[in-house]
């Protein structure tokens, strides 16, 4: 037996010790972990002896649930920041209107901090977002960074959360399917050799 077959058999034996009803939950939890995500979790499940369809669905569901939570939290944080900024601007404008003098406008303008320049990474992301859009960023993102990070960046930059969730769901389903089919084909080749 070659080392890969031995590893697969050892992992299957380990997963076999866990009740069948809990195996998909373990795969789902693995899918929620950044850098493992749906792709890695489906491979873990299949190698562990879980039905490939069940492993893929559980892995994708775990990944999407985590992305959903990240999107909701990031959206709330962005809303709070935007509201705080608009409240601050509204308060300073209200103070100007009360003073009623042109000198008040200059004083308010002097109190506001100058806009902070964007970082090099932020500028690069904005160029990519303009070039590929949300679909491209979502579909190509898993090649570079986890979907949780991609979705947080997209929502924080002002992309509507429904649009982010739609494209992240498509990307998760696509990459999990590719990983599942690839590992099934690889296991067939290994067992035939």
UniProtKB/TrEMBL annotation:
It comes from the Bacteria. It comes from Arthrobacter parietis. This is Small multidrug efflux protein. Keywords: Membrane, Transmembrane, Transmembrane helix. The chain crosses the membrane at residues 21-47, 53-75, 128-145, 165-187.
């Amino acid at each position: 037996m070659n080392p890969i077959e031995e590893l697969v058999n050892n992992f299957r034996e380990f997963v076999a010790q866990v009740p069948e009803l809990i195996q998909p939950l373990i795969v789902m939890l693995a899918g929620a972990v950044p850098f493992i995500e749906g792709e890695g979790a489906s491979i873990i499940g299949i190698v562990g002896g879980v039905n490939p369809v069940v492993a893929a669905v559980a892995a994708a569901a775990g990944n999407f649930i985590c992305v959903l939570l990240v999107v909701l939290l990031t959206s709330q944080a962005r809303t709070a920041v935007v509201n705080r900024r608009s409240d601050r601007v509204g308060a300073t404008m209200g103070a100007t209107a009360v003073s009623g003098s042109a000198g008040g406008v200059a004083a308010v303008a002097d109190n506001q901090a100058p806009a902070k320049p964007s970082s090099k990474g932020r500028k690069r992301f904005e160029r990519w977002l303009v070039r590929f859009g949300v679909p491209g960023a979502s579909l190509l993102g898993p090649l570079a960074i986890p979907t949780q990070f991609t979705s947080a960046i997209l929502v924080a930059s002002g992309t509507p959360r429904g649009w982010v969730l739609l494209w992240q769901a498509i990307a998760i389903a696509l990459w999990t399917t590719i990983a599942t089919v690839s590992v099934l084909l690889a296991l067939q080749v290994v067992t035939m050799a």
